[in-house]
Amino acid sequence: MTDTTPNKFDFDRLTLGEVATIEDLTGYGIGALSVEKPQGKFLAALYMVARRRNGDPTFTFNKALTVSMLDAQAYLGIDTDDENSADDTAEGDTFASAEGEAPAYGSTVTE
């Protein structure tokens, strides 16, 4: 089992370099990701970015691909069992940010 972090992954805090890395690794523009698109590479790319941010700068995408979906979701703070999860992942919805909105590619971050 991997380490877990109590904080949800904040999509709004992705750097442009991290966005580019996720897009390169997944083959999709980050704004186009939805529940219909393949999620394994996207989740692995997010997990890799989170691990690098949290003190493991040499963590690789290939290593992320070996992590279970449950462990990756726990580490990223993606709660699949809460009462709102069905609403958050309804068909056609895009992945949500920490504030519950889809990450806007190129949007500005406000505090």
Strand content: under 5%
Mean pLDDT: 73
Elements, N to C (H/E) = HHHHH
What gap, in angstroms, lies between the N and C termini? 34 Å
* Main sheet: strands, sense, barrel: none
Unreliable segments of 5+ consecutive residues:
83-111
Shape: globular
Please characterize this protein's 3D structure.
- With 111 residues, the chain is mainly alpha-helical.
- The chain has one domain.
- It is 37% helix and 0% strand.
- The protein is built from 5 helices and no strands.
- Helix 1 packs antiparallel against helix 2.
- The longest helix has 14 residues.
- The chain is globular and about 30 Å long.
- It starts with 15 loop residues before the first helix and ends in a 23-residue tail after the last helix.
- The C terminus is likely disordered.
